[in-house]
Amino acid sequence: MTDSWNKFDKIRDILSENKIKYDFKIKSRSPLFRGDAPLAGRYGAVPDEKNMYYIYVNKKDYGYAREILQKHSVAAEGKDGL
């Protein structure tokens, strides 16, 4: 989880380069989008610091994903560190 579009994009690139499957959600923190529904249209979402970006990997890939991201000095601020 991060609120930085650049960090989110870098994490996705690193996971893809290492053939780690992932999914993600983008949630708005803007007062215009009250509610818990993720933004519609994952691709093409406007990069914005008012958004929270969540990245999910399979449990079996979690350790490897975390190791790879640490090697690249990129870690998200999620409760599990990814």
Detailed description of the structure:
This protein has a two-stranded antiparallel ribbon. It is built from 2 helices and 2 strands. It is elongated. It has one domain (5-71). The model has no long low-confidence stretch (mean pLDDT 81). The chain is α+β, with helices and mostly antiparallel strands and 82 residues long.
Going across the biggest sheet, name each strand in turn.
Answer: 1-2
Structural class: alpha+beta
Whole-number average pLDDT? 81
Number of domains: 1
Strand segment count: 2
The poorly predicted ranges are: none
Question: Roughly how much helix do the residues carry, as a percent range?
Answer: 25-40%
How is the main sheet built?
Answer: 2 strands, antiparallel
> What is the approximate shape?
elongated
Q: Count of helical segments?
A: 2
Please indicate the percent range of residues in DSSP E strands (runs of 2 or more): 15-25%
**For the terminal residues, how far apart are their CA atoms?**
7 Å
- Computed over alpha carbons, the radius of gyration is 13 Å
**What is the element string, with H for helices and E for strands?**
HEEH
